[in-house]
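dumping this here so i dont lose it
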C-alpha cells in the first residue's frame, strides 16, 4: 500500500490549525480585566467584563440609582434567559464627553457576519452615565448589554 504524502501534509496542516485555534481561544478567555473604574469609559468596561464573567452582582452595582431601576432578579434573569446576549457582539469603547455630572461614551457594537462570505458590521451607539455619590453610574447602554425596558415606566408594572 502506497502512502499519499500530499494527503498526510494536508491533514497535518489542519491539525496544526486546530491546535492554534484552540490555543488562541483559551488565551483570550482570560484577557478580560477590570480597571480602576474612575472614568465613564472605565465603568462601562468594568460592567462589560462583569457581564462576560457572569458576575451579575458586580455588574448590577454599576447601575444608576434612578426611578424604575430593575431589581437585581430582573437584571440577572435578563442575562440568564438570554433576553440580553452580550456574546452576540463585541464592544469597542470610544471617546467620552463629560458635562458636569453627565457623560456620554461612544460604544461601538461589532457584529459578526452571519455567513462566511460577508463581513461583520459596526454600529456606533452611546452609553449614558450619571455621577452619583462621586462615582459614575450607568443609566443606558446599547441593547446588546441592556434591556429595552430598564429605567422606563413599564418597569413599575413588573415589580
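and the seq i came up w/
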Amino acid at each position: 500500500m502506497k502512502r499519499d504524502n500530499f494527503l498526510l501534509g494536508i491533514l497535518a496542516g489542519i491539525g496544526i490549525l486546530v491546535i492554534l485555534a484552540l490555543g488562541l481561544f483559551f488565551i483570550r478567555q482570560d484577557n478580560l480585566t477590570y480597571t480602576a473604574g474612575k472614568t465613564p469609559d472605565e465603568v462601562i468596561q468594568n460592567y462589560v467584563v462583569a457581564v462576560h464573567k457572569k458576575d451579575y452582582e458586580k455588574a448590577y452595582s454599576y447601575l444608576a440609582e434612578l426611578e424604575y431601576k430593575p431589581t437585581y432578579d430582573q437584571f440577572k434573569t435578563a442575562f440568564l434567559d438570554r433576553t440580553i446576549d452580550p456574546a452576540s457582539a463585541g464592544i469597542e469603547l470610544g471617546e467620552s464627553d463629560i458635562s458636569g455630572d453627565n457623560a456620554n461614551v461612544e460604544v461601538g457594537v461589532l457584529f459578526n457576519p452571519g455567513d462566511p462570505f460577508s463581513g461583520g458590521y459596526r454600529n456606533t451607539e452611546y452609553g449614558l452615565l450619571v455621577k452619583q455619590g462621586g462615582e459614575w453610574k450607568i443609566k443606558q447602554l446599547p441593547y446588546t448589554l441592556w434591556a429595552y425596558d430598564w429605567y422606563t415606566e413599564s418597569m413599575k408594572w413588573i415589580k
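The first strand starts at residue 89 and ends at 99.
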